[in-house]
Amino acid sequence: MNNFQFHNPTRIIFGKGTSDSIGEWTAKYGKTVLLVYGGGSIKSSGLYDRALTQLEAAGVKVHELAGIEPNPRLTTVKRGIELCRAQGVDFILAIGGGSVIDAAKAIAAGVPYKGDVWDFFTNQARIQEALPLGTVLTLAATGSEMNGNTVVSNWEEKLKRGAGSPLLNPVFSILDPVLTYSVPRNQTVYGSVDIMSHVFEQYFSLTPDTPLQERLCESILQTVIENVELALDNPEHYEARANLMWCGTMALNGGLISVGVRNDWASHGIEHEISAIYDIPHGGGLAVVFPNWMKYVHKERIDRFVQYAERVWGIKTEGKSQEEAALAGIQATREFFTRIGAEARLADFGIGSDQLERMAEEAVRYGPIGSFKVLAKDDVKAILELSL
Amino acid sequence: MNNFQFHNPTRIIFGKGTSDSIGEWTAKYGKTVLLVYGGGSIKSSGLYDRALTQLEAAGVKVHELAGIEPNPRLTTVKRGIELCRAQGVDFILAIGGGSVIDAAKAIAAGVPYKGDVWDFFTNQARIQEALPLGTVLTLAATGSEMNGNTVVSNWEEKLKRGAGSPLLNPVFSILDPVLTYSVPRNQTVYGSVDIMSHVFEQYFSLTPDTPLQERLCESILQTVIENVELALDNPEHYEARANLMWCGTMALNGGLISVGVRNDWASHGIEHEISAIYDIPHGGGLAVVFPNWMKYVHKERIDRFVQYAERVWGIKTEGKSQEEAALAGIQATREFFTRIGAEARLADFGIGSDQLERMAEEAVRYGPIGSFKVLAKDDVKAILELSL
């Protein structure tokens, strides 16, 4: 186990009916609020009206930034920053999934910053101040509701980049699983792939002697695997929705499940390059890339892949070589993603080989990526080729 | 899963050498500090001198409260409160195990309170203000380093009671596993029993549909079981000490592993009555009581005990009745505690039946205890009789 610091002050308010406390919690922190949300789903579900009623009753003044994109765009973030400055906003309330929350975080960091907010995403500047923010989560996926990370797309330059700071941890996040009843089938699938992928990035590591962290990772993977199909078969299955939601948060809340463990994050880097160009759903891209990353890197520490096959998928390893056991676990991953309805190949998104070179190049723009196996441009290209 | 709130702002600074940052972290929060510690072990290990040197270098003024008892006493807490008031202390630094930290918390709550600090332990008053505190942990056991709970003994009245508030969460806790190299063998044993017992209190629950929480509990139990003997055989086994230390914190950091799960805590209540009268080590008392509590209550939800036998102890349940499987898991617990050197019977502490009635009565002083099975006075007495 490596040395680590862990600090996560986000307050979680979890459970059925907690979305009735949006006004109450917001009023504890803000008087003039920017309400950030995405498309029309919070309007059609009635959540928008409920939130506004509560905020008004709590005496909070509300300005709005609607239309956050699934891969939130820098231009939208900048509009939010201007709005906050013009209106004297003192708190940001994000209602939505990871994209909406990420946009809200980028706005929170940008408001007090004199330069271009994109500086934070290109390692030109560090976040040293931010508006406080709160969230109401409507999709189990990114964990953004309990960490300080944000990912934004610069559509003009076809770049998708991350930034982060403890200052961007939401002060509160309201997690009402009922709000996810209306999440479309494919978003439930992609969200679940995203959760599992976050765990993979932390689980496949070369750091020795981390038994608790490994088991925590396996706990989340097993729970997601057990619950996705329950939620797909019956979208109003409260317990399945609640379990997925809490798994999503636990999978990426400041690295709790992987403290002292060197993480990888190469697959996310590769996927970001795909969706930066093709604007495909993040979870869809991950479902394509991850099993191929696994195939490409598994020999680096095959015992971890054997453990994964055994403990997560219950694969009997007796009589199998390590290689056979490892590949069986990878195959089980691929089959599970396919069974729940995620894409298996880039071709399923209509993506061919013409931009492979560029994606590989961009993925290593700041140097090789990953740590389980350090990937140079050719490695990334090879994984993308496996994914075609 | 039940609704829940989770909020744990304690910052963890974990790893080899982190005890070199005591001065630096303390100076961020306090100018005039009360240093709280126990017996001579931090002096003989050199930690005391190192801490004082660091605090002086950091420009912190230090007052001391030494001699915190293993079951910290109200009289000592009151001395600490007076000292803080007289010296204008603005921060409390606890260096030690759970008892030292618990005493520091009680002092932190008592300083700004006009009444008797014991009021907080008898439900006469609620903690509404507290001095901030930090900790340097020297024993893997109670989890007090990352929660807001404290347990204090009123020796005159032979009462041991708990109190708690989010205000008592340490602002930082330094966890350097190297500091636990010198922990005596029996304290390593009792600390490990304590960690496992904390998990039991959260794992044996009637709350349905909590798969992630159950897996997290099992993860900690398995990791403790794998590491205790490594640490006993080789007290300077860094990884074993690190794993035990992190398990201790994760087992009781504000209920993270059991959010949305109704906890039990009856066994702790029973043990508190034993050690209130006989001043035995908390972990020793728990090692005696818990397997007997398990025997007494397991029929309430036998499937949880079967799952425990299977997942934690790897007991093959095929061909066994549920009752046989459950009892095999309980037996494995008993045997493990005995194998690592914990006591199995009250008689091992020289405790007979003469105070059983009184202990049973005190345990239910504020009403029946537990939730897995709600225990009245006669139930408590029966468990104590099984423990003789």
UniProtKB/TrEMBL annotation, chains A, B:
Entry-linked PROSITE patterns: ADH_IRON_1, ADH_IRON_2
Protein name: Butanol dehydrogenase
Source species, domain of life: Bacteria
InterPro entries: ADH_Fe/GldA, ADH_Fe_C, ADH_Fe_CS, BDH-like
One Pfam assignment: ADH_Fe_C
Species annotation: Paenibacillus oryzae
Segments forming domain Alcohol dehydrogenase iron-type/glycerol dehydrogenase GldA: 9-177
Keywords: Oxidoreductase
Ranges for domain Fe-containing alcohol dehydrogenase-like C-terminal: 188-385
Thylakoid keyword on record: no
Protease among keywords: no
